[in-house]
Design goal:
Layout (H helix, E strand, L loop, with lengths): L2 H6 L3 E6 L5 H15 L5 E4 L8 H14 L4 E6 L5 H13 L4 E5 L16 H11 L3 E6 L10 H14 L2 E6 L3 H13 L6 E5 L5 H11 L5 H10 L3 H21 L4 E5 L5 H10 L6
Parallel strand pairs: 1-2, 1-8, 2-3, 3-4, 4-5, 5-6, 6-7, 7-8
Helix pairs in contact: 10-11
The structure holds flavin-adenine dinucleotide.
The site of flavin-adenine dinucleotide (FAD) has 23 residues, from β3, α5, α6 and β6.
Length: 285
Amino acid sequence: MRIDDILRSGTTLSFEYFPPKTPEAMEAFSAAYDDLAQLNPDFTSVTYGALGSTRGTTEAIVNRLNAERPFPTMPHLTCIGHTRDELTALITSYRDAGVENILALAGDPPSDGSDAGDFIYAAELIELIRSIGDFAVGVAAFPETHPRSTSREEERRLLAAKLELADFGMTQFFWEAEHYVRMRDELDALGSDTPLIPGVMPFVSVPGTRRMSAMNGTHIPADLEARLAQVDGDPEATRALGIDVAVQLSAELLEEGVPGLHLYSMNRAASVREVTDRLGLRAAA
Ligand SMILES: Cc1cc2nc3c(=O)[nH]c(=O)nc-3n(C[C@H](O)[C@H](O)[C@H](O)COP(=O)(O)OP(=O)(O)OC[C@H]3O[C@@H](n4cnc5c(N)ncnc54)[C@H](O)[C@@H]3O)c2cc1C
């Protein structure tokens, strides 16, 4: 099924996973995936290790899950670091395996300055995907603007143009609903009405949360920073706080009428389950 069609029939619930690196990690992934599959998500997605060793793992997992499950699994695909021919081969292989959805991303350029490949921007990848198959194409959006952005206005203009080429967008994680609402209003003013699904992360680690927030240009508000400081070093209290924050944020976003919720599972089921339980989302299909 195409995700744009699913979005037309109501608010979606979806989960994100990453490709495991070891046999033990693959077992943990499968256990979490099986557990969360019982919640009947509308779709799932698997990230792509730009420039990394797990690129083939994403393809293998996505093809297997699409064959086994009643709901679609969407591969993330980054263009930086690939030649046009490599991307053409991978997208063709997804098409031939019956994959109907792709999240088209730029990826981050190599920090050592080595060859970044034939494409720079996600918009170029969308064009290639469209030329190969009839996929539903998603793209990334950054509510607090992309870390490489130099102008908010220009970033929003480019995002509106990219969303025009795509079927839906998915956001980076953020800690305050107002960032999503402001982005939505700015896109609205530019005439963009492509559905934009917020990404919500139930965090499990204080240093990890601070590191990833800094890396992605995600602002940690003072009250959350104070709560993080209180639970630092206590894994169970950190996990409980991650759930509280995700539940509160998701409830506010649902109140705003978002088209769906995309929960970052980090290949663990427990926190996502508690978030969906507390929000009263998704019983048996
Ligand atoms: C939901 C989501 C999922 C992600 N999944 C992955 C993943 O699986 N693997 C991974 O490696 N990374 C992933 N990322 C990270 C992403 O690849 C990086 O953040 C990357 O730097 C930006 O990707 P993009 O697709 O938004 O890029 P683009 O849309 O290409 O934008 C990148 C920057 O360039 C600017 N720009 C765009 N077009 C132009 C133009 N024509 N001229 C000048 N400037 C331009 C934009 O304003 C922006 O600042 C994900 C991000 C999100 C939000």
